[in-house]
Write a structure and sequence with these properties.
This protein is an alpha+beta fold. It is built from seven helices and nine strands, in the order αβαβαβαβαββααβββ.
């Protein structure tokens, strides 16, 4: 199934003339950063604040450029998919531009807590609850540099959801793909 998923995502990137990225959540699995050391993909941390970058790097989300035959890509599909490591993005933007844009969404001010709190929008378990909170303007702003986001179903990794901005309604739409049907 992982080979089919990988092939599907890279074929979709090719079809849409986009780069395939992943946001990988280092907080989910301590082994993720170990993968970076040995395979070092092109990546950028998504925390904007320098102190956050320094103190939380090992638990921070990283935006990673995925290359089809890279060892890290293989590990991500085999070990991370189904384990809530993050999500996949399709974008025409370069790594620094997209990382800068996504950094805007990692922290929000909580009136309940009277302070900034981290938002793990890239977590497959949270995405289905996160996007419905967006109004049209927020949805349009979020998807400014993103063509689509693909994420595993939090309870059934055999299902892949794709989120994108519907151009006419400016609402976030979700499509479901059965990965078993690709086998």
């Amino acid at each position: 199934m992982y080979t089919e998923l990988k092939n599907f995502l890279f074929e979709e990137a090719h079809r849409t003339h986009t780069q395939l990225y992943a946001i990988v959540d280092s907080a989910v699995d301590g082994m993720i950063d170990g993968h970076f050391e040995s395979d070092e993909p092109k990546k950028q941390i998504l925390y904007r604040d320098e102190e956050d970058r320094r103190t939380l790097e090992l638990k921070a989300p990283h935006l990673i450029v995925l290359e089809k035959e890279h060892p890290f890509t293989e590990r991500l599909f085999k070990e991370g998919y189904g384990n809530h490591w993050g999500c996949f993005l399709f974008s025409k933007e370069n790594l620094p531009t997209l990382a800068d844009h996504l950094s805007n969404y990692t922290k929000v001010y909580s009136t309940e807590h009277q302070q900034d709190v981290y938002v793990r929008f890239y977590d497959p378990r949270a995405m289905g609850q996160y996007f419905p909170l967006f109004d049209k303007e927020e949805a349009k702003a979020f998807f400014t540099y993103i063509e689509a986001i693909a994420v595993e179903d939090a309870k059934n990794p055999k299902v892949l959801y794709t989120y994108s901005l519907h151009k006419q309604s400016e609402q976030i739409q979700r499509e479901e793909k059965d990965l078993e049907a690709m086998v």
